[in-house]
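pls design
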C-alpha cells in the first residue's frame, strides 16, 4: 500500500459531464459504422421485404392474426430505411478506410474487390427498371379498365419499393465512387 495525499482542486473543472460524455459517445458511434448502420440496416431490409414478398399474393393469416396490405406499407418503409442505413454504413466504413482511420475488414475487402461504379449503376438501374415495369403493368391495367378506380396496391407497393431502392443504389454507388477517388497527394 502506498499512502496518497488528496489535494482539493485549485481551480474550476473544465469538464462538462453531459457535453463531454455525449462527445465521447458520438465519437465511438461514428467510428463503428458496422454496429451503428450495417447490422441494423441489414436486419431492417430483411424485415421490410418479408411482408412485401409474403403478402404480394394476397392477405394471409398466421397464428390467428390477419395480415394484409397495411403490413406491406410498413414493410416498404422499413425496407427503404434499412437500405439507407446499409448505404450509410458502407459510406462510413469507406470514409474511415480512405482516411486511414480503420483497416478494411473482410466485407470491405470483398466490396473493394468486387464493387465498381458500373456494377452499382447497373444494379440500381435494374431494380429501378423492374419497379417501373411493375408500375407500367399497373398503368396498362388501369388503362384497360377505362382509367376507373383500380385496386393494385400490392403490386404498387412492390413497384414503389423496387424503384426507390434502385434509385438509392444508383446514387449510393455514385457517392461511394466519390469516396474512393484518390487525390493527387495519395
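designed seq:
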Amino acid at each position: 500500500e502506498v499512502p496518497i495525499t488528496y489535494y482539493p482542486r485549485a481551480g474550476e473543472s473544465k469538464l462538462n459531464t453531459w457535453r463531454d460524455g455525449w462527445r465521447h459517445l458520438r465519437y465511438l458511434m461514428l467510428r463503428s459504422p458496422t454496429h451503428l448502420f450495417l447490422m441494423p440496416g441489414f436486419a431492417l431490409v430483411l424485415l421490410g421485404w418479408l411482408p412485401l414478398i409474403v403478402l404480394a399474393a394476397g392477405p394471409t393469416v398466421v397464428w390467428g392474426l390477419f395480415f394484409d396490405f397495411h403490413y406491406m406499407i410498413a414493410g416498404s418503409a422499413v425496407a427503404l430505411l434499412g437500405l439507407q442505413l446499409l448505404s450509410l454504413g458502407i459510406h462510413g466504413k469507406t470514409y474511415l478506410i480512405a482516411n486511414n482511420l480503420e483497416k478494411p475488414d473482410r466485407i470491405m475487402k470483398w466490396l473493394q474487390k468486387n464493387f465498381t461504379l458500373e456494377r452499382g449503376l447497373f444494379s440500381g438501374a435494374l431494380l429501378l427498371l423492374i419497379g417501373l415495369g411493375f408500375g407500367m403493368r399497373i398503368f396498362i391495367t388501369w388503362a384497360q379498365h377505362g382509367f376507373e378506380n383500380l385496386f393494385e396496391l400490392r403490386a404498387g407497393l412492390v413497384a414503389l419499393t423496387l424503384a426507390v431502392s434502385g434509385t438509392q443504389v444508383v446514387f449510393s454507388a455514385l457517392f461511394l465512387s466519390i469516396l474512393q477517388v484518390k487525390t493527387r497527394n495519395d
